[in-house]
Amino acid sequence: MLGDYRIVGRRASEIAANVEHGVGAGDLAPGQLLPAMRELASQLGVNPNTVAAAYRTLRERGVIETAGRRGSRVRSRPATTARASLRVDAPPGVRQISDGNPDVALLPPLHDAFAAAARRQDERPVRYGEASVDPELARLARAGLDADGVPDGPIAVTSGSLDAIERVLGAHLRSGDAVAVEDPGWGSLLDLIPALGLRPVPVALDEDGPRPDEVERALTAGARALIVTCRAQNPTGAVITEARAKELRGVLARHPRVLLIEDDHGHAIVDQPLYPLAGPTDRWVLVRSTAKAYGPDLRLAVLTGDALTVDRVLGRQRLGPGWVSRLVQRAVVELWTAGVVDPLVVARAYGERRDAMLSALAERGLEAHGRSGMNVWVPVADETGAVARLLHAGWAVAPGARFRLSAPPGIRLTVSGLAMADIEALADAVASAAGPLPARSYG
User: Fold this and answer.
1) What is the 3-state secondary structure of the chain?
2) What is the pTM of this model?
């Protein structure tokens, strides 16, 4: 059953660690069927309850999945194998447009903001026991949320969007719970959910965001949480419109106990308005990251939500890192108040490149998507072949497998680093590499 790999261990923790090591090393392949619990217990000379505890730990870590009488298998994409490993390295002479990074020319200099924050820190050092959120940061964040119609709620600060989402999921969900997620969607999120022992339920989307019928299906089937991207959806660039937001709120109103998580990572780099979904459910949060507008290494996101959820996030945070550096928080305050990033200028720069790419692909008869943000999603018939052919042509693009659960194949092009002079050559290469469209290409 396991080939040459032999599971060893006497305690549940040892057995679980040994299986996890085998998966991480590639000795136990995705989909590999594991021995039945009693069979493995007999082989190891341990109580079946010990093996049951080991398998339970592995399920909670997102390493294996159990399907009743069909037994336990290594997950098709174990948590120990991140989707980022599906990246395409760009050898010399190949342009890297797969990484999803913002244009460094559009990022602000950070020196003055951190220098001002450091001076304030020198004048009044932060000590243990102080509030975890800088009061001025909270005030400015709340003002921006109010302007966008986000319901009132307390503010928390985390080390980026994914940290926020992990903490919110942990505040309400338990191992085995189902989470409805966009498909295609953010690869890191699709890794995080099984790593927490949760079960992702794919929700198809179109250019207006998650489809209401798909959300209804997932929530009716028992999903306890729904995670949506408000704008600049990764990888498709979808934007939740006013009409779609109204439809989705109607669906959520029929499932008021569902946890709603809205990811507004496109804040400050898009010019489309925000139409928040919060309101119909008892538990909700909206997360805003500084990464896209100010740089990926500025690890800070603000979130607001219902009082219970935010309180649980802050309480658990106090028992771990304690707080996000107030020095970093103050630097973000300086950046916000100095107005060093003009969202309209950034959105226009990305929009010009994205629209030019979409137009060039359309002229060549290709379907592509990207209403906002810095990425373009191109459905293809043969994802692996398209990626390989583009690499040969001098372009490293992201394979859609990084972003898909059950959605059809595609490739993601990050346009943020492109010059307008690059568009035609890239469009020619994509048209040559893409092949005929699949029958169901989007949503």
Assistant:
1) CCCCCCCCCCCHHHHHHHHHHHHHHCCCCCCCECCCHHHHHHHHCCCHHHHHHHHHHHHHCCCEEECHHHCEEECCCCCCCCHHHHCCCCCCCCEECCCCCCCHHHCCCCHHHHHHHHHHHHHCCCCCCCCCCCHHHHHHHHHHHHHCCCCCCCEEEECCHHHHHHHHHHHHCCCCCEEEEEECCCHHHHHHHHHCCCEEEEEEEECCEECHHHHHHHHHCCCCEEEEECCCCCCCCCCCCHHHHHHHHHHHHCCCCCEEEEECCCCCCCCCCCCCCCCCCCEEEEEEECHHHHCCCCCCEEEEECHHHHHHHHHHHHCCCCCCCHHHHHHHHHHHHHCCCCHHHHHHHHHHHHHHHHHHHHHCCCCCECCCCCEEEEECCCHHHHHHHHHHCCEECEEHHHCCCCCCCEEEEECCCCCHHHHHHHHHHHHHHHCCCCCCCCC
2) 0.84
